[in-house]
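1st attempt posting a full record on here, be nice pls
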Amino acid sequence: MVPRSHRIACVAALGVAAAPGWAARDAWDVENTGQPTVDAEFTVTEGTWMSVDVSPDGQTLAFDLLGDLYTLPAAGGEARLVHGGSSMERDPRFSPDGKRLLYISDRSGGDNVWVSNVDGSDAHPITAETVNSLTGPTWGPNGAFIAAARLFSTDDKLHASELRLFALAGGSGRLLVPAPANGENVHEPQFSRDGRYLYYTEKVSPPTRSVVYIDANHINYAIMRRDLRSGTTEELIKGFGSATTPELAPDGWHLAFIRRVQAKTVLFLYDLQTGEQRPIYDGLDRDSQADFIWQGIYYPQYGWFSDSRHVVIWAKGKLWKIDMITAAVAEIPFRVKARHRITLPPRFSHDLAPSIFKVRAIRQLAYSPDGRTVVFNALGRLWRKSLPAGQPVRLTKSTSLEFEPAFSPDGKLIAYVEWNDERGGLLKLAAMDGRSSRTLAASGGVLRAP
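the predicted structure (as tokens):
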């Protein structure tokens, strides 16, 4: 059950403690780091992994491209820069009244939720995370609050995330959906228009199923629906190929979602009244459910037009308007004049074959019984040094790795082990000067400590 304090109807009254003033923090200007830069300008008509949204009146699109935000007429054309520069901005969302944009930015030094007017003015952060990251922001139905997924920075919560509710005034927010009991993640929140339901993606398979590899055609993710009045949660859509990235239509009766079907990523339509689900478009790019994605979205965000019939979505480098009834697909062309300031990385020159190399560490020292000689390992070879001030020289000329020398009681012989990836291990015996070495034992495994 969700506590009463978490219910949507009470959000406006609850309020959230104000965050510490940003002005009090140490100044950080990502646009002026003091590092050398070069400027690059180019024009593109396609992009990669672009999140896109539609304004409530259906006339304007907002999308991200190469870390910048743009707006575009819904019919296509020349894109207008809204937020650019060295910071990374992504996942734009129009407010319910169409006047503001919600998005993720690292301008403050970490991934936080920001809001601005649609023209880019009055940009300011809503959250103030410095260690954890936020992703996948969405507006509440009346535009008075937002929700986002918070990912954790510690190793014990590597896969986990939770959904939090934030007032526009800022603050640390309130827990809306906790991390699942299996230690996995919840992402991609969407509110119903009346504020009663929250739809989101949950990883339902345990971490043991996805430590290295996820078979995306199995059941790994489900779209959940939480009733914010009663606090009950149900698995709304699940099955082979999973179900991710829900987008609720304005009419409140249809839900678009993403599913893997064998080698294809497919856009589906779900009827909330009948439970029917239909594949609509199988030309999407590969989703990212087969790996853990720090950005927290399993396919780029997309949006419905106000007619509750058409969806705009990114695929194959382009933006597409898809009829969710007839499955007709039409490209929305765009042209972006991109300008980027690229920070030059530091470069250091190294002599990879110096005539003299200073060894920083030696190990496995063996002293002769008379104390006049020491043999030791350095750089995978055995070296002999006369004490106190002799020059170290190789004990042998072998090309194999040599380890763990040991003197005989009379100091005339040295036992040691060799390793060769093709032959395996050898136990060897050599004279003090390294000559007349012979093999005492051989093994396909490792020999140690003679």
